[in-house]
Design a protein that fits this description.
single chain; 142 residues; mainly alpha; 82% helix; globular
Amino acid sequence: MKNKIAKSLLILGALIATFTALAHLSCIIFGPQCYKAQLAPEFIVESAIQGTWLAPFGAILISLLFFTCAAYALSKAGIIRKIPLLNLGIYTIATIAIIRGLLTFQLKFRHPELVGLNNLSIGVVWFIAGLLFLIGGKLKAS
């Protein structure tokens, strides 16, 4: 039973990471407005407007990071073969995602004008994803 729960949590974490990767890749198709909607830094939005390679290269690079997160979750769940440094990867991803979520919350309380609903939602999703990676990883290790 514990193994099934762990697998489900890790698969859910992988789905969040995969959706995030695809959302970043969608900016290449939908252009500057998509980068802006996803809160890309101004120089990335400007690159998309100018048609330079920085924006699409950045979107691909960030997407690869999120696909890597998904691969680690799927590997820990036993769906794909074991990836090197699996436990270190899972717990590093979990820690970064949880910290990212917590930083959003603290910024919302300290400077509410800087955190809109979009950014707050992303923070909540990644806080939850971090917990999914952490709890799924711990349960699967037991």
